[in-house]
Amino acid sequence: MAEIYLDFEKPIIELNKKLAELEKLGKEHEIDVQKEIAALQEKIAATMHEIYDSLTPWQKVQLARHPERPYAMDYIERLFNSFIELHGDRRYSDDKAIIGGFARLKNKPVMVIGTQKGRDMKSNVYRNFGWPHPEGYRKAMRLMKIAEKANVPIVTFIDTPGAFPGIAAEERHVGEAIAANLRDMFSLTVPVIAIIIGEGGSGGAIGIGVGNRILIMENAYYSVITPEGCAAILWKDRKYSPQAADALKLTAEKLLELGIADEIIPEPRGGAQKDHAAAAEMLREVLARNLDELSKMSPQELKEQRYNKFRAMGQFSEKMVEEAVKEMAQESGE
Fold first, then answer.
1. pTM of this structure
2. Is the distance from CB of 177 to CB of 217 less than 8 angstroms?
């Protein structure tokens, strides 16, 4: 299967093609081209450094959505032992967009829950493209309550553009399901770590995202709305998605600066899709350390820390709103 590249990665594609052609030429004609190969490899490394170290927020959104990026199950298979998946919300059905169950991290039991996308059309339909239904959030909370009774920590993997916005979800009260999760997650007496591994979209993300720690992968994003949705509302045109992505402050660096995220998990050069195993190892180190730190806190301390963390989020002033509106108007040329 051919590797998938994004538009801004085209300079790297061209250089890699030249490198392959040069290696083929040297092999076929028995010519010593090692000097030229070394120079080209150095140029590729410099180009990758230039591109990936100066990504715009919109480019990071594209990386977060990369179809070859590791999903929740990819991390679960690499990080945990003895994963036992549990199904159903005991009310309506089993939502395949949310997976969860008991597992072991370094022989310590944990409850793992995550949103799951598919790799092709068949699996995406099966997973509803990573858009959870109300029963998915109710299943997640059922598993969290089981974890609380078993006194084991909870780890959630978030990678969804949002909760499913269809009529069926509204009929089964998706808003109520998310709201109930927010309320009940604040009362949990065990450690909760939420990890944004790809897309962290709107209420669909925060429905399993109320944690003592919020960790985010280097090229993931976390936002109240997708850039396309924001552009459609503010500018009435999705072509302004790059401007919306910048205004939403949705990148890992901005979220850390604003106090939303607690730590950024590094990724292999070019994104987690380049090396799933390396990305998992980077995540393992950060996750294990945070679990060890939280395990030293009492149930009451965990509840209070989680509550105070979210209460401290966000600042508002009329001046900030006026400046933001003026900035967006200037960018749109109005």
1. 0.89
2. no
